[in-house]
Write a structure and sequence with these properties.
This protein is an all-alpha fold. The chain contains 13 helices and no strands. Helices cover about 60% and strands about 0% of the residues. Helix 1 runs antiparallel to helix 4 and helix 12 packs antiparallel against helix 13.
Length: about 290
């Protein structure tokens, strides 16, 4: 009975993550960017934006379907066996700062793994499928939330003693910040480029040309990229080519965007001649 009550309490507390509070701001930002692009370029990639919004709807539906399993069952089970209980409030601000750093580092590790492990890339590649860099690109999120494995990278933070609500709420806040860096309208911002993730740094991350491929994995901070050798500044003389190295066979079809890479990954695995080769095709680089 105690587990059931805790499950429902956690489920209710995580049903409205930080990201939902900012939905009106997301919509206003999308509209403002569209107006500015129309004013400057006399055109706007409506089809691209529409596909991204369609992907967002599918993501919300699949997230809702798996919400209870991820946050209620898995996160709560880990928290039940936590090493200690870490109090989190504005009165305990050092714990908040540490939580922010742990979550941001967790995002870096998760993000880098999502680019280097093919099975995880099958989900994350959805986000890189847009050949335009617009704020709507941030809407392109996977329809396979359980298979993406994203939530797993933050469970160690729960295990050491942080309340799952605070952990995944901080993750949502981290992702909310990242929404606003998906744009070409903001130029480089000087010395801040070395510390925080900026539109310029994130444009590099979405590049598929060799100079920019697999760089700048950071969420809010870029210090992890500097520490682990994955930082790359945007170069004035090298134009960024957005999108995937191997585009989807139907790049405007949300279902192909969502599931084609997963299908190809599983097909490659089942077509392998040995267990070792199967594992390589699933866990090796995409």
């Amino acid at each position: 009975m105690e587990f059931y009550l805790n499950f429902n309490q956690l489920l209710c507390r995580t049903t409205n993550p930080v990201i939902l509070i900012f939905v009106p701001l997301f919509l206003v930002t999308t509209l403002v960017e569209a107006v500015l692009i129309l004013h400057r370029q006399k055109t706007y990639p409506w089809k691209n934006a529409g596909v991204s919004i369609g992907m967002a709807i599918g993501h919300l539906i699949t997230q809702a379907a798996t919400h209870g399993v991820v946050f209620g069952v898995i996160a709560l089970s880990v928290y039940a066996y936590r090493l200690t209980t870490i109090p989190v409030s504005f009165r305990h601000w050092p714990n908040l700062v540490l939580l922010f750093l742990l979550v941001d580092f967790g995002f870096y590790v998760e993000h880098r793994c999502s680019h280097r492990i093919r099975f995880l890339w099958a989900s994350h590649s959805v986000h890189h499928s847009s050949e335009k860099m617009l704020v709507t690109t941030a809407y392109r999120l996977s329809w396979t939330p359980i298979l993406s494995g994203v939530f797993l990278f933050y469970l160690p933070i729960v295990w050491i003693g942080y309340d799952p609500v605070w952990v995944y709420g901080t993750v949502s806040a981290n992702l909310t910040y990242q929404f606003f860096i998906h744009t070409e309208l903001v130029p480089r911002v000087g010395w801040l480029e070395w510390i925080i993730n900026t539109p310029s740094a994130h444009r590099v991350h979405h590049g598929s040309n060799a100079e920019y491929l697999d760089k700048n994995y950071g969420g809010v901070l870029l210090i992890w990229d500097h520490l682990f050798g994955s930082h790359q500044a945007e170069q004035p003389g090298i134009a960024i080519r957005y999108g995937l190295l191997h585009p989807r066979s139907a790049p405007d079809n949300p279902f192909f965007i969502a599931y084609e890479e997963l299908w190809l990954t599983l097909k490659a695995a089942f077509g392998a001649g040995s267990v070792r080769e199967r594992l390589t095709r699933v866990l090796g680089p995409p």
